[in-house]
Every structure is written in C-alpha cells, then in structure tokens.
Amino acid sequence: MDEQWSFVGSKKNQRWLWYAWELRFKRIIAHAFGRRTDATLKNLLKPYRFKFYCTDQWPSYAKYLPEEPHIIGKRFTQRIERKNLNFRTFEAVMPSIYLLFKVRRSS
Fold first, then answer.
1. pLDDT tens digits, residue range 5-19?
2. Distance between CA atoms of 64 and 100, rounded to whole angstroms?
3. pLDDT for the residue numbered 100
4. ∠ at Cα 56 (74, 54), nearest 5°?
5. Tens digits of residue pLDDT in 17-70
6. 3-class DSSP state of 45
7. C-alpha distances in angstroms, 65 versus 22, 42, 62, 72?
8. What are the residues facing 70 on neighbouring strands?
9. Angle 30-7-47 (CA atoms, 0-180°, nearest 5)?
10. What per-residue string of b and e applies to 48-85 under the rule 16 or more CB within 10 Å gives b?
C-alpha cells in the first residue's frame, strides 16, 4: 500500500492517490483519491479486507492497520515505489509526446 501526490492547477491544491498493490499479479486492486489524511486512508480500507499489509513508515499506517499482518519497510514496497516512478515519468513525458504528435499531424 502506498500513496502518491500530484496537484490540480497549483501546488496548493495537492491531491493524493492512495492505492493497494497486489504483489503476486502486479496490479492495483484498490484506490482512493483525497488529501493525505487519516480519513482518506480509511476510505481505502473500508470496502476491502486485505490479508496482509506492506507499507512505508507513515504514522497513519501504524495507527489504522492491524499489527499482525503489517510489514513496515522498503523490502516489499519496492515494486509499488517503482510504479510511482513510472507514473511520474509518464506524466512528465506525455505533454511532449502529445505536442510531437500534434506537429506531425498538422504537417
């Protein structure tokens, strides 16, 4: 489970994407949008029952997740952090690809 931030319009309007990553099939199985608050984490957890949790050390995870199936550390969050990097890279490159396509199409 991890969170990733972005903004709408200006950096004052931060929005967070929270999501749960399934290790075996390497896919996102749950997500929630909102601010980086306990309420958004609760919205992600509410409709689902997860067998275990792998998270970073953000304090709200320790506060709201059960202790027994909760693994804190980078060992199991490496893939989800890589997915975050891929999302950020795609967001950064996408406008240039769009402009390139637009220029080629008008020629």
1. 777 777 887 888 887
2. 46
3. 62
4. 75
5. 887 877 777 788 888 888 888 888 888 888 777 777 878 888 888 888 887 788
6. helix
7. 17, 10, 6, 11
8. 53
9. 20
10. eebeebbbeeeebbeeebeeeebebeeebbeebeebbe
**Ramachandran quadrant class, 34 (left: phi over 0; alpha: psi -120 to 50; beta: rest):** left
Neighbouring C-beta atoms of residue 46, cutoff 10 Å: 9
Residue type, 104: R
Count the residues in the chain.
107
Torsion of CA 39, 68, 26, 8, to 10 degrees: 20
State the pLDDT at residue 102: 60
For residue range 66-102, list pLDDT tens digits in order.
Answer: 877 887 777 777 777 777 777 777 777 666 666 666 6
Radius of gyration of the chain (CA): 17
